[in-house]
Amino acid sequence: MNRARLQVLYRDVIRPALQKELDIKNSMQVPNIIKIVLNVGVKDAVSNSKILQEVASALDLISGQKSIRRNARKSIAGFKLREGMPIGVSVTLRGRRMYEFIDRLVNLALPKVRDFQGVNTTCDRGGNWNLGIQGMDIFPEITDFDVTKKIYGMNISVHTTAKCGDHTIALLKMFGMPFKAVV
Predict the structure, then answer these.
(1) Which CATH class is domain 32-174?
(2) Are strands 33-41 and 154-160 parallel, antiparallel or unpaired?
């Protein structure tokens, strides 16, 4: 079974180092990444459903697997949105694809962001971390700008087994995530 580069790095280097750094007795309690969810909301899909298909194909290229459509949960008259209308696409990455995505995000995509100064260190209570990206065009898979006529943003949600935000940040730092310098 082939493993991703970061998956082997986590097993052999990161987990023992993190266990020592966080002073965790049991190696099974060391934080790990469970899944990564990529989500793109497309407000233009209300008026043109073809746009949603173009964004879905771009997300398929980035993630390496088929994305699913997300429908509106409730109607909002001001946005001309009815319950059940397709409004976005998402992908859940696990295993090898998840580690390959983190590798591409840290080493290829984030360095392409103009005036990049690092990502935020805020996490939610459960130890999960979110990142909003202005445009999907920072990923190397999106080489042709005809894939999406308009640049759409994307939310990346990293779900971990960490009990607190400090452990999540320590885990992601070990993977090479470039966080903002704390002043």
Answers:
(1) alpha beta
(2) antiparallel
Q: What is the pLDDT of residues 110-157, one digit of tens each?
A: 887 877 888 888 888 778 889 888 888 788 777 765 544 677 888 999
- Torsions phi, psi for 159 (to 5 deg): -100, 125
DSSP 7-26: HHHIIIIIHHHHHHHTT-SS
Whole-Å CA distances, 146 to 51, 55, 59, 151, 157: 12, 11, 14, 10, 27
β-strand partners of 130: 157
Q: For the segment 54-81, what is each residue's pLDDT rounded down to a tens digit?
A: 888 888 888 889 988 887 777 777 777 6
Tell me how far the alpha carbon of residue 2 is from its chain's centroid.
Answer: 22
Task: Report DSSP letters for 4-73, one per residue.
Answer: -HHHHHIIIIIHHHHHHHTT-SSGGGS--EEEEEEEEE-GGGGT-HHHHHHHHHHHHHHHSS--EEEE-S
